[in-house]
Amino acid sequence: MARGLFDRDTAPGAEPEDMLRLDIPALVVPGRDATHATSAARYLEECLPKAQYWDVPVGGQTEETAPARMLEFLEAVERR
Hints:
This protein is mainly α.
């Protein structure tokens, strides 16, 4: 059963081919813990054509920086 659920090296969910067809903006914020690898964030960035990657380590994602970055992203999306 496990082989059927986890039939690839990436997380279960949408196939990369499906994500490549998405036409929506996305802000990819990297993590770095047991369940959120930085490599997974980079993979997601590669699969989402309109993704912006926030290249800031987890320690730099603070109460001061994260809301400002999110607002910057939303304002850019709104202008499109």
